[in-house]
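Q: I'm a student working through a structural biology exercise. My instructor gave each of us a protein and asked us to get a predicted structure, then write a short paragraph describing it. Mine is DNA polymerase IV. I'm not confident about reading structure output yet, so if you can add a plain explanation after the tokens, that would really help. Here is the sequence I was given:
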Amino acid sequence: MSNAPRLSGAQLAQATHAWGSDTSGCTILHIDMDAFYASCEILRRPQLRGKPVIVGTGNRSVVSAASYEAREFGVRSAMPVATARRLCPQGIFLPVDMPYYRQKSRQVFQILSSITDQVERTSVDEGYMDVASTLRIWKSPLDIAHYIRTQVFEQLGLTCSIGIASNRFVAKLASTQAKPNGMLLVPQARQAEFVQLLPLRALPGVGPSTCDKLATWGVTTTAQCAQLSLEQLRQITNSAAAAQFLYNACRGIGTKQLTLHAPERSIGQERTFPQDTRNTREVTAMLLQCSDHVASQLRKRQVVARTVTVKLRSSDLRYATRSYTLPTATQSAPVIFRTARTLCEQLLHMQSHALDATNPHMAVSLPELIRLAGVSVSHISDQKTTAIQASFDDLIAQEQSTSSITDSAQGAQTSPKPTSTRLNHAQQALDAIRERYGTSAVHFGA
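A: Happy to help. First, here is the predicted structure for DNA polymerase IV. I'll explain a few features afterward.
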């Protein structure tokens, strides 16, 4: 579900009017499902049609999706459920059912893939198509868009909005303004004109901070931003990359290149505490649980990762993150957990080992109330093709093992296997137990 600002009234009519029928070069389609999670729930509960449906339950959770009826009350995705209940007390709140949504998503993308193999799936409810190669069969991209919307509705009972343009950037903006259940073609020659009708916050990647910086220069609209030179934008943003993005965005310039088989960028888990907490043990336990889950997913997918990131959300809903790139890749829960614990201490400006479960002084309170904690890993690669250098602890264990074997030959008792080998066997055993009895059957201890 897109939360990008949409025009209304006369501005909306101006932006979504027929910009012309010139489809020259307009081979990029952005398909965006309308209120996808909520629409899926209404699909299996037809009696909810026309009512304010909100996907997300529990006062500690956030809204995952809201029907258009619920949005009329100001409900938006990522909003705390408690806030949504105040805004829309008559709303129908339903739990998230990701397996069901993924099933419907696969059916949607099967329809897209029946037209062309040039399909990029960017999330469960949106994606891009490059239809250049199939225009020899279809008369125009407008015909393709009409066919997609018809098939999605007739086969699945769902609706989608489609933007058509010469590049990804404008196509996505067009689909947003076409919502709900519409399609919009922006001819290549008029893309700059179209973009400059939109508010600055409608441009993907432009947030409050950038808008504030532009406002200090008296720039409050996209059309005004388009009058600035690249050098002026560099002075305002203090970033060459941000300046180049804004310069291109305000002129409707973008790429049409799709990533058809995107490698997995990150694996993570985050959880909201039942109550905001300052308890060090609760936060440490959450970091351990998330690290264990992430490591299990790495092993399941037969990949390793180098960068560990910790995410905290405080009671005032502020987010903070910190990352560290390991010297070598890993899929070990203890390694990920130790790194995550250190990062968390740094985020909270605590002394080293303050979150160590073996620390007798661990009962100290955290410096602020924590609402959510999470761990993720990135820089992912195939475990079969990635060299994993032994850690210092592993080398010590191996040296001790070799020494013990030598002693054994002289009559001493043989020592246990190296720590790394025992740990690998333990993790494999955990994976096997979880596979049979469920992910919550067993966990690593701190």
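A: Here are two points you could use in your paragraph. The longest helix spans residues 280-300. The chain has four domains: 29-185, 200-249, 266-382, 392-437. It's a good idea to check both against the output above yourself.
Q: Great, thank you!
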